[in-house]
């Protein structure tokens, strides 16, 4: 009878130790999974930030190209107006801004 009780106690202790080891392993695996999920989320945030920065850079480049095209158009229009205003011997002409754009006008001087 004493041997049976001792064997039962040893079996109980072994079962408790095995259960504790399994619980510890499961907790460690859950921590590893949590760390992996956090790393994946951080990488996704970094990727989103990189995409946002690239979009901002592309938009800035497009705006820069549009501004340069507008400046070139304005310079060409001004050059055409200035060339049309250069009439030697016909008085002094100046460039005035009328309702729709720059035009040549006779100066009062």
TrEMBL record:
The entry's keywords: Membrane, Transmembrane, Transmembrane helix
Listed transmembrane segments: 6-28, 33-56, 62-82
Protein name as catalogued: Uncharacterized protein
Organism: Petrolisthes cinctipes (Flat porcelain crab)
